[in-house]
Amino acid sequence: MTETTLLSVEDVAVDLPTPRGNLRAVDHVDLTIGVGRTLGIVGESGCGKTMLSRAILQLLPKKAKLSGRVMFDGQDLAQLDPERLRKLRGRSLAVVFQDPMTSLNPVLTIGTQLIETLQEHLELDSHAAKQRSAELLAAVGIPAPEQRLAQYPHHLSGGMRQRVAIAIALSCEPKLLIADEPTTALDVTIQAQILDLLAREQRRRHMAMILITHDLGVVAGRTDEVAVMYAGRVVERAPTAVLFKKMHMPYTEALLAAIPKIHAAPHTYLPAISGRPPDPTRPIQGCSFSPRCGYAAGLCFGAKPVLTVAESLDHQFACFHPIPAPAGVDA
Amino acid sequence: MATLELSIDEDVAVSAVARTRRLGPLFWMAIVWMIVVFAAAALADLLPLPSPTDMDMLARRAPASALHWLGTDGLGRDELARLVYGARISLTVGLCAPVIGVTIGGALGILAGYFRGRLESLIVGSMDVLLAFPPLILALAVTAYLGQSLLNLTCILGVLGVPAFMRVARAATLTLARREFVIAAQALGATHARILLRELLPNVFLPLLAFFLLGVAVTIVVEGALSFLGLGVPPPISSWGSMIGEGRESLEIAPRLAFLPAITMFLTVLSFNLVGDALKALTDPRQSAL
After folding, report:
1. Looking at the complex, does the CB of residue A102 fall below 8 Å from at least one CB of chain B?
2. 10 Å Cβ neighbour count for A321?
3. pTM more than 0.90
4. So where are chain B's domains?
5. Domains and CATH numbers, chain A
6. From A58, which residue of chain B is nearest by alpha-carbon distance?
7. What is the pLDDT of residues B77-95, one digit of tens each?
8. Residue contact B288–A102, C-beta within 8 A
9. CA A191, CA A183: separation in Å to the nearest integer?
10. Domain B25-39+80-288: which topology?
11. Could you tell me the CA-to-CA distances from B69 to A30, A196, B79, B121, B250 in Å, in that order?
């Protein structure tokens, strides 16, 4: 890794107390992301992706306990006092949420929401803020931006709203954008547009981006590096091209196999991953994936595999029975 | 792009028309009655009415005539003038007391719903104490201690309304605070004050307004009940409740003296309820999910 590190998540764990016992949502995760780079975090629902992003932003539920360090731009976000953290959010750290139906305030106009964010962080006067808002809306591909400023979120379609949410997130030129399943709530036809928009703005503004998704197909062409999460842990981490060429973790393979192939014959059986992720309040002894893994045997049920280095230093996986390379399935 | 613009404008226009249509004639009758009552109360001094306190002992309980349109009461005072001046008291108390309630209760409710934790327990707990206190006894105790006046009456009724408004505001805030736009605002570096005032307050405002109108109706009735019991404004000032109380003495001879203020109060309260219900239907959370 030659580029300078912008964010490094060091040994972060998140514990949530629940009526059924302690829930470890994020289990000792280490990640780094360089300036201007894109990291994809992939995993199925409930594997801790969102909790990890909230942990980075320090927006965890009040009862949650965070351990480890979140180093952003040379300072530990977990130790930062609330006021400095607040100034950092929105200014240097921005986030786009999954559902644009609920991430915009329904009773304020789009202009108000954009302009207030701009004024909060950049100390623009109202005229300059308004002008910049219109430019931002135009930049995210919204036609007639001047008129849109006076409209309410319910006047816009889902895709348009997500564009507005992206415009708000980009408004103060953040160094890091966290996109938490930005396309899950959208139409398939809109998904590609939004992802391309994010990629374009990311390149243009030279900001780093964390793209969280459950769809390996989404990260395939749009990220520099991918981290696959399962049951709160990172189970495989590699540069995107390497990961798709020779994955080692059976879970990654299973995720990839579960994507429908466009060339497959009609009525082809789609290999879904059977079963469900383990109950996070009842941690199991062995590898979390072992109950659902086709390769599991012996040691898999007795101990947790740790991240080990594969052929290259930037490719890591956590498995006792890695798939021998090259076993990459053609995406 | 032009077609997109057009379709949006049409949508807005259509929904506005549908909204007025849905309100129905009852809503508009209620609005007309409220305007009449408010205008009469506000312009009472300008209207060609006899004094509401001048007694004409020779014309006690006189029937309707050109001089006294609705006759006179047990002390020979003009019934219509007393009704109009009574509207002043009833509406002043009926509006001011809920304003106190909605301000204090709304603020406490939003704070409780947003910050949760100990503050919420404290606020909800103290409201429960206030609710558990018999309201009439409290009103009696306070008027006995501080004396009977319009201000005291308004304050008592206002404080009694605080728990209900607090509950409405807290319930609305609880659901809103979990919505993503509040987390999004936090992620954008908004201060607590900004989230409370700009993100939550505008969303809680409409359900509170609808509840406020129902609160006005309830307060008018409660004020009537207190005046009926002689705990309201001191005589000779008239309020609808005290007029009903005075009319009770001559129910057999001149039932209109009790029924006229009762009907006026009934219609006014009904109007407030109808308008409040219509607004509540408009701001139904199921529709605001848009």
Report:
1. yes
2. 19
3. no
4. 25-39+80-288
5. 5-106+172-230 (3.40.50.300)
6. B187
7. 777 888 888 888 888 888 8
8. no
9. 5
10. MetI-like fold (1.10.3720)
11. 87, 78, 8, 56, 19
